[in-house]
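Let us work through a complete example step by step.
Step 1: write down the sequence.
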Amino acid sequence: MTAMSQLLDVVFTVLQIIVGGIGVYQVLLGCAGIVRKKEERRHAVHKSFAVLVAAHNEEAVVGALLQNLGGLDYPKELYEVFVICDNCTDRTAEIARAHGVHAMVRTAPDRRGKGHAIEWMLEELWAYGRPFDGVVILDADNLVSPNFLLEMNEKLSRGERVIQAYLETKNPYDSWVSLSYALMYWYMNRVWQLARYQLGLPNVLGGTGICIETALLREIGWGAQSLTEDVEFTARCVERGIYPTWAHEAIVYDEKPITLWSSMRQRLRWMQGHVFCARRYFWRLVILAFKQRSWARLDAALYLFQPFRFLLYIVYIFMLYAQVATSLIDRMGVTRLLPDAFWTTVGLLLFLQTPLVLWIERKSWKAFLGYIPYQLFLLTWMPVTVWAFFTSNNQTWSHTQHTRAITIDELQHEARP
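Step 2: predict the structure and record it as tokens.
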């Protein structure tokens, strides 16, 4: 065997171990999210909240959110809303004042982006003087379920310090792209987030619908100013042994792009921030995991490695093609570390997880039809992830325009089967 053949054999052996291992891990992890354990609220309503709404030129949608927040099933005296009007040039601040909430105007064109805006807002909040128990972070295009603060009150009362709400899509059927986002989030909510919660593993923050104990923010600060401030803050918490948790019944509805181009721009920003955070925190968490024999920290580290999971899924498809569908591996003289039945079984289980989630969640038949173009959407992650890997030092924030103004009543009516 030549040196090149030996090298090729080693590379393919390592690929089989990594890709096969991740596939099995994801299948087993997902099983923990199939059956959801019912939980009841046991604590009295008493926690107070500062609700921060991050907004940059969001006059088209912010009014619907503020109307929504004004009608929550929660005592009005226990929460206040602060709209961060971040470098706005439109009527966002005016609309906020018209709804009777705090319009916090920030002008800092050299430090743009949500992470910087939240850092600034927290300093303003500490100077405000009211001792809130928790800080909720939302985006201006969001809507939230009426029970949102009730669920956060319950979680904080149980001693949880960082909570992520269920991430729902506000406009799933606007286009095949927005439906693909919805399928991705429905899958992750159940198979990633709920599964981890029920196994006692750290959950991951998703950018919006976040509640953080005020005492924790004062203790460690925000300190998350990358393009994916949610991933960065998750890593900072897990590193300190503070595990974010999951609130399945608290729902935040988020507007998703409807064109492929705008979607790829948004996902490029996500992946650039994700790769940046992975480089900063991955090995630190892995070392801590082995030092402290912590499965939770290792799992969190693997999540930070997830920008590459889309590439690994592509490699998984290639392995199915090379070993099962054709004899390419045999012709290349590469060792078959795992049998054909392994790749076929695990591949089928991974493929069926999303339809299973749609069935469990009782989604519309349109969602099942959307699973066909969703495969194309998954493939578009490959160029996005590759490009992000080589441009991750570019942490320039870009704005995603939001236009889907809809009330919570209209949204819930549309969602009824």
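Step 3: interpret the result. The radius of gyration is 22 Å.
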